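Weekly structure sync, notes
Attendees: PL (lead), two postdocs, one rotation student
Agenda item 3: pending single-chain targets
PL asked that the sequence for the first pending target be pasted directly into the notes so everyone works from the same version. It is reproduced below exactly as submitted, 334 residues in total.
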Amino acid sequence: MDENREEPLCQASAVGDINVVRSLIAAGADATYFDGEGLTPLMHAAKAGNADVAKYLLDCGAPWNALSPNGLSAGDFAMENGHQSVYNILLNAGIQAELILNSIARKDEGNGTSNMSYLEDRVAFSEDKVMDTERKAVMMAWEGPLMEAHAKAVCSVGGGDVLNIGFGMGLVDTAIQQYSPKSHTIVEAHPEVYDRMVRDGWDKKHNVKIVFGRWQDVISQLESYDGIFFDTYGEYYEDMRDFHGHLPKLLKRGGGGVYSFFNGLCGSNPFFHVVYCEVVGLELEKLGFSTAFIPLPVKDCLGEKVWEGVKHRYWELDTYFLPVCQHRDDDDDA
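Predicted structure, written out during the meeting:
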């Protein structure tokens, strides 16, 4: 690599000299280069708000999702510095890239084994968390206010039928019960979590039906519901997207029924999180749904002590965007 081209490329990107950027790229400068600060030319362009340079670098193969040593992307730099035009360019690039990758991933799917190792693993219950054997949190008590908000959303059709995929600590299900739904179906796949549900008497509640198994294996047992919540552990985004394919039949039409999910998508990076919110919204739109994301502040819930003993911090953002999804023909009834 010839640094005599790459360093000037970073400098030209920072000052917005598009002509120099073009000539350096034409001469073989690497648009993916990281300088001594750990920044790419695209990051420099984003920090300075140079939209034309950012667009050109993206067209030349600069990665929109490269990270600095501090874990920031070009989109984060644009966001922090208030450069809306560059931010929009990077956001669109991220959305298009992820939609293409998701389309490719669909063709490679089919083994249906993403969460099998978790289901065979032991879990430990404590007052404020459920952990797997690798000290990764399955669910934590700080999510309580979020689960209450999710329950309020999916129970917006008073006295309706509600479905929850994934029990965990039972936070959302406890909140759902406060709304006295006509029926409350819970799908849980982990045997230890299921046993704990039974010990705690969930199978004795008059309006509760527990379906034990992976949602993929029991989908034929499910009916249609006024409210649906999805929060599984040990699965990937592709699994949730597969579940979304069943939503047109699972979520009742008419009456303002609501689907929501735990929105932990890229929960450690603000820009990536926005990209994935947009991606999931577009994919749900193709299925006939409209999705709104309601901002909820969570900074005060996440002190350092919350993560003591937890191997991976799965959420590091100050704001949680709660998804509210409805059939488009239900919008007027919301």
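Discussion points:
- The longest strand covers residues 289-297.
- The chain has a mean pLDDT of 87.
Action: rotation student to compare against the earlier draft before next sync.
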